[in-house]
Design brief:
Its cofactor is Mg(2+). Helix content is about 40%, strand content about 15%. It has about 240 residues and is of the alpha/beta class. The strands form two sheets. It has a six-stranded parallel sheet, sandwiched between helices. It has a two-stranded antiparallel sheet with strand order 4-5. Helix 6 links the parallel strand 2 and strand 3. Helix 1 runs antiparallel to helix 2 and helix 5 packs parallel to helix 10. The longest helix is centred in the first third of the chain and has 14 residues.
């Protein structure tokens, strides 16, 4: 793989950097019936996903699920040691910046990255904002406020965020252009930023997610695509970057 002087690695979080989905996991650990409600509500499509998770957090808080319980669930969430090594070693080698671009939320991601010793590795974390209220409720909001201007994405991004637009905005904040961009993703909402990648860039697509299905069905990517299943494979690729 050609050596470059300046590259960016972009990570989705759930099922890409981590080996679980944060929004669902905290309820699988602490309130399985709320986890079932999320599944059923997501399937019938009656609520926007970020709004749905915010409601689930309010319901869990009302029944006594505490901040400690949520944070402890995040700390024990599956996260492969090979992914920790891959990020740490590539960062230590220099010339690489890291961006996290996720539809999870700022609290979930920060708790896990700190637990894994990765919090200093990322230049920016672009996600939905969340904060702890004095009562112990985790207050979650969409990144794009539903009462304000909305994105105009036609690729299929959720109303809370267009990942393609967010990636382009990051490029504008961090000139000049990166010699290579590597995007690590799994879900269908990672298809939009993947379409923004160039021929010199690379997409690491987790092979069991919605992103793989959209690539197979729609195509149109300019970048190189590598498929992976386990974090040890990402580590192998990162060693060649």
């Amino acid at each position: 793989m050609v050596a470059v002087q300046r590259q960016l690695v972009v990570f989705d979080f759930d099922w890409s950097m981590a080996d679980q989905d944060t929004d669902r996991w905290v309820f699988e650990v602490n309130a399985p019936d709320i986890r079932r409600w999320i599944e059923d509500t997501d399937t019938d499509g009656t609520m926007q996903f970020t709004d749905m998770v915010a409601q689930a957090l309010r319901d869990a808080h009302a029944r006594g699920v505490t901040r400690d319980q949520l944070e402890n669930a995040l700390r024990i969430m599956p996260f492969h040691p090979a992914m920790i090594r891959a990020i740490t070693n590539l960062k230590a080698a220099g010339k690489t910046s890291f961006l996290c671009l996720s539809n999870a939320n700022s609290v979930y991601i920060s708790v896990i990255l700190k637990e894994k010793g990765l919090d200093a590795m990322f230049d920016e974390i672009v996600t939905n904002p969340a904060e702890w209220a004095p009562s112990g409720l985790l207050v979650l909001r969409r990144r794009i406020d539903p009462s304000g201007p909305q994105h105009s994405c036609t690729v299929g991004c959720s109303p809370n965020m267009c990942k393609g637009d967010e990636l382009e905005a990051y490029f504008m904040r961090h000139p000049p252009a990166y010699a290579r961009v590597v995007f690590v993703g799994d879900g269908s909402n990672d298809f939009c930023p993947a379409l923004r990648l160039r021929s010199e860039d690379m997409l690491l697509c987790r092979s069991f997610g919605g992103l793989h299905k959209r690539i197979a069905k729609e195509g149109g990517l300019k970048c190189e695509v590598k498929y992976w299943t386990g974090a040890w494979e990402v580590e192998e690729i990162f060693k060649k970057l």
